[in-house]
Amino acid sequence: MSETAEQLITPTIIEQAMSYEEYRTMIDNLLNENKTTGSNHSEGMVKYTKMNVHRMNRLDKQTLLKAELGEALESVEQQWIWLVLTEAWCGDAAQNIPVIAKMADQTDNIELKLILRDEHLDIMDQYLTNGGRSIPKLICLDAETLEEIGSWGPRPKEAQEKAMKWKNDSEISNKEWGEKLHKWYADNRTEDIQEEFVQLIKEWI
C-alpha cells in the first residue's frame, strides 16, 4: 500500500464502514425508494441492482466453502480487517462479495467491512486496475495497525482475463459482454475465487 493509501484508510473509515448485513439492508432500503447507491438512479441502474440482489440471495444460500479454504481460514491467527470497495449496481460485486462474506464468517479473526467506491474515490484511486476504478476491491489490513497485508479484485484471474478479451472485441456488444461474464460466474460456481483465496491467505499469513 502506498503511503497515501495508508494515510487514507483511517480508524474512522473502518468505524463507519458497513458489515455485510448492513450493506444488504442499505440496498433493500434504497430499492424501496427506487434508488441504488451512487448518484445515478436511472431505471437501468436500479434494474442492475435488483438483479444483483437476486444474485446475492442465491449465493448466500448456495455457497459452500471448500474444506481446503475452511482450513486456510482457520489457520489465520492474526486479526484482519477485509475492507471492500463496492457499489450496489456492480455485477462483479454481487458475484463475489457473498463468497467473501462466507469466508469472513468462518473465523473470528477476520472482520469484513464495506465502503462505497464513489464515496471514497481517494482510496479507490490507490487501487486501480489497468487504470480503471474496477470493483469489488478487497484490501486485507492488520486490524491493529491498519497496515496493508494484501489485496484482491475485482474478479478471479480467469474472469478478468476473459472480461478484458471480450471488452476489446469490437464484435461483442456491452450487453453480450455482461451476459458472457455472468455465465462464466454461473458455470464456475465460485471455484476460482475460493482457490485464489486459499493461496492468498497462505501468502498473507
From TrEMBL:
InterPro entries membership: Thioredoxin-like_sf
Classification via SUPFAM superfamilies: Thioredoxin-like
Superkingdom of origin: Bacteria
Name this polypeptide is given: Thioredoxin family protein
Provenance organism: Fodinibius salicampi
